[in-house]
Amino acid sequence: MFKEIVTERLRLRKIKLSDAKSMFLYAANKETTRYMGWQTHNSIEETNEYLKSIMPLYKTKKYYDWAIELKENGKMIGTCGFVNVQTNKEFAEIGYIIHQDYHKKGYGTEAVQSLIEFGFKTLRLTKIYARIYKENKISIRLAKKCGFTLEVQPEHPLTKDHICSGALSYSIKNAE
Ligand SMILES: CC(C)(COP(=O)(O)OP(=O)(O)OC[C@H]1O[C@@H](n2cnc3c(N)ncnc32)[C@H](O)[C@@H]1OP(=O)(O)O)[C@@H](O)C(=O)NCCC(=O)NCCS
Q: How far is the CA of 85 from the centre of ligand 1 (A)?
């Protein structure tokens, strides 16, 4: 079910082992990774290990994590994808991260909008949700821009020690 997605400026493709160098550039950045559900990478070996760990997951055909590549020059600038895909309940959690040098250019919005379309049309999800720390105003802005609304009673609580006071759950439902 995994497939490459092409948008106006982006190519969303399978993540490769050779993405380590590009990924490390943002995965090692404390600010960029502050609100992620994983720890900042301390060495490129950590990035390599992470990449090795996800390669077999693609073979399950139930792994939905894309490298975000710029069409114009082939640069890998981030990743986006679905975690906790519950095909029986037809919902999934979305996640995204983009290299700090490429923020505020609309790439996040473009990637997330294309994943929403993939999630609803191809995976036939009825709901996509994002757990976003209250402090992560930019991610909240992006989610709202893409049509996500705040869930009154969050179904999926989350905390990250010392850093964040708790996550809000934003979701979007398939209108069809
Ligand atoms: C969240 C993230 C992916 C957004 O990516 P992006 O490519 O910069 O997003 P966009 O350019 O599409 O911008 C989306 C909105 O956020 C705003 N925005 C983006 N970066 C901003 C910044 N540094 N300061 C203020 N607003 C910002 C944009 O202006 C836009 O809003 P607008 O259209 O109303 O003006 C990026 O900031 C990131 O990688 N953050 C770190 C990882 C992260 O927190 N992931 C989410 C975990 S829940």
A: 24
Q: At the fourth CATH level, which superfamily is domain 5-125?
A: Gcn5-related N-acetyltransferase (GNAT) (3.40.630.30)
Sorted by where each begins, the domain ranges of the chain are: 5-125
Ligand 1 contact, 145 CB (< 6 A): yes
What is d(CA 71, CA 98) in angstroms, rounded to the nearest whole number? Answer: 15
pLDDT on residue 152: 77
Choose one of 25, 80, 136, 138 to mutate for the ligand 1 pocket test, by most ligand atoms within 8 angstroms of C-beta.
138
Q: What is the pLDDT of residues 28-68, one digit of tens each?
A: 999 999 999 899 999 999 999 999 999 999 988 789 999 99
136 lines ligand 1 (CB under 6 A): yes
pTM summary value: 0.94
Distance, in Å, from the CA atom of 112 to the CA atom of 155, rounded to the nearest integer, reads 21
